[in-house]
Automatic annotation (TrEMBL):
Signal peptide, first to last residue: none
Domain of life according to the entry: Bacteria
Protein name: Methyltransferase
SUPFAM superfamilies: S-adenosyl-L-methionine-dependent methyltransferases (SSF53335)
Family: Belongs to the N(4)/N(6)-methyltransferase family.
Alphabetized InterPro entries for the sequence: DNA_methylase_N4/N6 (IPR002941), DNA_methylase_N6_adenine_CS (IPR002052), RM_Methyltransferase (IPR001091), SAM-dependent_MTases_sf (IPR029063)
Catalytic activity annotation: a 2'-deoxyadenosine in DNA + S-adenosyl-L-methionine = an N(6)-methyl-2'-deoxyadenosine in DNA + S-adenosyl-L-homocysteine + H(+)
Amino acid sequence: MRKEIIGDCTLYLYDCHSMLADIPDNSAIVSDPPYGIAFQRGVGGQGKHSVRNRKAIVGDAHPFDPAIWLSFPEVVLWGANHYAQRLPHGRWLAWDKLAGVPEYDDFSDVEFAWIKGRGKDRIFSHLWKGICKASEKGGKERWHPTQKPVALMERCLKEVAGSPIVDPYMGSGTTGVACAKAGRQFIGIEIDEGYFNIACERIRKAYAQPDMFVERPAPPQQLSMLGAAE
């Protein structure tokens, strides 16, 4: 096991299933777990991703069983439509990845998160598909095949009030970045050392440059008397 403490974020390089008993009972689970994409797609689940790390995701070759996380008081799990039959009644957050842009590829235009408890289903619209992104446009290639935008995970944090926020399948650390920006306590667990190192780097940068994921406004343009920008 390797442990890193960065601000209010505590990160573990370890198998989350092996440290389940060490996760505080009052934790809010917010995660995008491996849910069998490779298993469902066949052919190794390999697709065209503009990511720096193309290796297989640990655990993604088998269907996901969410049972061990359902006892926590607050839970937000992405990709839940792929294992909905294993979930109790809850509510849904639908992420509209096109945000009004016409569909243009063969990949899904929407992703779904299951949220524990009763309430209204919600939609979050945020363009983030292929090279088209409404945020983090100045960043480098994506670090993880299933990486989510920080804006989406910030939206997820609004669904939970508990502390700490725990992401047992931390990946490249987007949930941790959102927590760092929001001043929320975070525990992240990742089994893959490469992704763990990326998460540590991104979270450090989030503390050092809290506005690094905020789009800078376009510089003002002077308008001519005819109304056209000069």
